[in-house]
Amino acid sequence: MKHIITALVENQPGVLARVVGLISGRGYNIESLSVGPTHETGISRITMQVPGDDRVLEQVTKQLNRLVDVIHVTDLTTAPLLNRELVLLKVSAPPARRDSIIKMAHTAGATVVAEEPETLTLQITGEQAAVAAFIEELKPYSILDLARSGIIVLARNGAV
Amino acid sequence: MRTGADCIIDGLVQAGTTTVFGLPGGTVLDIFAKLYHAPLEFFLVRHEQGATHMADGYARASGRVGVCIVTSGPGATNAVTGLATANMDGIPMVCVSGQVPTHMIGNDAFQEADTTGITRSVTKHNYLVKKVDDLPRILAEAFEIARTGRPGPVLVDVPKDIQQAKTSATFTGPVKIRGYNPNPEADPRAIATLAEAINKAQKPLFLVGGGAISGEAAGEVTTLARRAQIPVTTTLLGLGAFPETDPLALRMLGMHGSVAANRAVSECDLLVSIGARFDDRVTGKLSLFAPNAIKAHIDIDPSAISKSVAIDIPVIGHVKAILQALIPQIMPRQRPEWLNQVSTWAREFPLAFNRNDSELLPQEVIEQVYLATRGEAIITTEVGQHQMWAAHFYKYTHPRTFISSGGLGTMGFGLPAAIGVQAACRDRTVVTIAGDGSVQMNFQELVVAVEHDLPIKVVILNNGHLGMVRQWQEMFYKREYSAVRLRQDDRAANEKIDTTRRKGYLPDFVKLAEAHGAVGLRVEAKKDVGAALKKMLAHPGPVVLECIVKPGENVYPMVPPGASLTEMVQNMA
What is the pTM of this model? Predict the structure, then answer.
């Protein structure tokens, strides 16, 4: 099961390393990671996607809470969530296929952010599932480069 | 204006430090310059690992925060084992390490190491100080973090230029860290639920761990157990939290626990953990652990609850306060059947060994130490079979009298820890029980004991082997004694040692002790042990007493790996 863990932490050097170290120290892979400041001074939010065993992730969450610089941790995997991800991708777009790619992008709600003679760079934001689906759709068109921001979430009911 | 180094020394003193262990180096020259004039007693060690174990032993014996100072690079990496040892056992320590100047960090500078990176997973918390103005606050925080909640080691890494920089910053407190709330107040309803469960239980059992000692709650544990007339078993680190001479004491439980303790755990209908974290050495096979019991857990660390064993009644908070609130709610009650059953087990299956008339046995030596010290010494141990025998054949009646590396199981801990213990408790008898393998690891620290007039007594049970590994090889690895023999004349073929050239054991521990300035004694015969111990205890300085003991003894009972606590292998007498 892919767990979504979000932590509010002190915006200090080393905090991210400690949080990440705790998880990777158990041999778990952090599939995606996003970190940035929040509206409160000195507090950052770390959002991680970690596939793993439910029980172990429950332990990990408790142990993250124990860290001195971690203010609050929640495992939001089963909570009602708003989730978003941002992706930039560069596709091979020779003149013959350019129009169909642009059309596909517009249908999916993506925008063209850069044009080169043989390539197009597209940007899409949206729910992770939708974004993932768009990437799948583009695979036959030869994706040359791809950057995903990783998921960010906020709980719907003001939990965190 | 003060320099960073001033802030460090002032911070130590302000926190109540009187004793510091350490070793200087290039990146701590400024700290040591201030130390020269400071109102602190400084112990110059011979290896930084020694400093950390001394600070650890000092903390375990006194309840105070142990303090050590090490230099950058190899100084800090030498401290890692000691920090990890303290981290596993929850021991309060502050370690100040030097670091290369800030502009050189990350450049592979001379004696540079990523100390905060390396120690991140073996400390409760650590700091890399980037601004001198932060130092007074950081030091205060370090001590607060070290000694509150589940105690632990905190490392403060200070670059040389920060030590030299000037600041007018001060810190008078209080320490406030947003994400750190170490003293949760226990829920009175949880305590009431626990009281009810205890009062209702027919076969209750208290499992007492190191947390009860860290929380200074041994008195409350004893009052509670006696009032409720409930039997008590302890973990290795809980030894001494409840007097082992009391009829309610079942002794230690777990992999090498007593039959009575392990059977009581397996048969009880209520198991109350008081500051014990359900370590794997204690539980045996989890699915078969305390199968008939409702499980309660009193702990200050919320992440300890249901970590390995599902807990029915969690009571999170400070153990002393919780027990104080609990005791008046407990009805004194007689449970004669249960008490009879556990005491029958204790009587029929006492911790024992096969005595013989000719050979000197390691277990016997410990019995003799117990008698010679009247059970009043502070015992430190190294790690291995001797450690288990020290838990079996010495009865601990007070907290902070059994000092041993439990969670990490660090060989080389015992001798330096004894020095720290003696430094904290100058008027007590301190005896280290050591194996011949372990004692070599930090033997060099013995000089520190000699020069500071710390009369530690090091009893080496020399069986010529790394005994615990040998036992496992005997029991589970086809008796192939790979790399466990330490005598010169009997070695495994793969070591390619010419066993015809030398005889006996190297090093000569008596000569080694004398070379360090201590008294060295050796006994080989049973009849000489009593007198040797007497001589050892009477001598006003440090003594190493080497006892040549019969090899091949096994620690019993033993719960084999993967087995449940009821599947103990016992001594075939």
Answer: 0.95
